[in-house]
Predict the structure of DUF4175 domain-containing protein.
Amino acid sequence: MSRRPGNSFMQLWGAPLLLSVLTLIGLVSALTGDGGLHYWVSWLLLGLPVVLCAWYAWRPQRKRRR
């Protein structure tokens, strides 16, 4: 099975880039908004990295294949 060289960048950096863009949107929403929808968007998007880190920290570890 051969891998295409152009596809490996998004496989490695796709999720971190998406998470950083969503976090940046949450930060801008928190800094520029004044109540209502801005607060909900900022809470949701700024809390997302915390939730994901907690989920990865407490998930059961899979056994590695040799």
Notes: The chain has one domain: 11-58. The helical segments are 8-32, 37-58. The chain has a mean pLDDT of 88. The radius of gyration is 17 Å.
